[in-house]
Amino acid sequence: MGRPPCCDKSNVKKGLWTAEEDAKILAYVAIHGVGNWSLIPKKAGLNRCGKSCRLRWTNYLRPDLKHDSFSPQEEELIIHCHRIIGSRWSSIAQKLPGRTDNDVKNHWNTKLKKRLMKMGIDPVTHKPVSQVLSEFRNISGGHGNSSETFVRNFKTEPSNNSILTQSNSAWEMIRNTTGHHHESYYNSPMIFTNPTSSPFHFSNDSVHLLNGTTSSCSSSSSSASITQPNQDPQAPVPTFCWSDYLLSDPVIPQTQGVGSSATSSITFTHNENFNSQTDSNSQKTASNSSGTCHSTSSFVDEILDKDQEMLSQFPQLLTDFDY
DNA sequence: AAGTCACTCAACCGCAGGACG
DNA sequence: GCGTCCTGCGGTTGAGTGACT
Description:
Number of helices: 16
Domain HTH myb-type: 9-65, 66-116
Low-confidence stretches: 156-168, 179-300, 314-323
Pfam families: Myb_DNA-binding (PF00249)
GO molecular function: DNA binding
Radius of gyration: 23 Å
InterPro entries: Homeodomain-like_sf, Myb_dom, Myb_TF_plants, SANT/Myb
Keywords: Developmental protein, DNA-binding, Nucleus, Repeat, Transcription, Transcription regulation
Number of domains: 3
């Protein structure tokens, strides 16, 4: 027996709110404050579900909300946070005063995701589509010979791609077109940027996104080495060869012919946000990772070890996003 | 001018987790 | 420990609107 509905749905109004209804909510909250939303409709004289009232208040009527368009800085922050924590809209919204999770989610789905796709960046992984497809080719046997064509279409006319229109990311496209669900790979924290591994990021800079220019990624090269424009050329660039882990993971089938164009030797650059607070530590960690790339350990074990290492060195990661 | 399409965003839905008796 | 209620969250839907043919 399932949970009963929160209200009698046949007798409550649905759909857009009128100014009069808004005024009733505002008047009630001004006097009594928020809380116990299930009782508010009755007390405020509204024929609405309490849940609907709460949503109207939190997403629209709250006095601290901004109703203007997103600034470039806010967009940059959304992209950055999404790269780190994914679609945890409430957590991202907390970083944006005056914005709700619904605002952020809608803005991502309608604007930012499309902008990334148009630039050839997969909005799920935040990596160049060419690289995502190349990596997939590596683990699926190397017969994805149409990936370059796909990447061209992805970058130039994403809206004309029926598959993309529905699935919106290279990874989802791969899943849809092949029926293969490489779950261990798909869920890998190295691919889906996990905060515990976040010192190793592609620097598909938000600056480029906001300026409307294309990123430095190449649609033809599967060996991505992306560096930050302001990075000191003298400074050593820590690298992290996660593909080594992939090839050593027993879950993922090994393939022949992963050399030349199919080899994914990806250079991860240092995340600027970690530089400011934990520069020496993260440099050390990154350097340790870059120099070794041991293929003798399993991918999962290495990730877990790295998580532990990161958590011990960057405890603020736990607090930043409410883990 | 009328019809169609694409896009935006407010609102809804179902689920999960916490609080409480 | 269990059931109920409330709240919060993320995914999805659909009405409204502007652009295009």
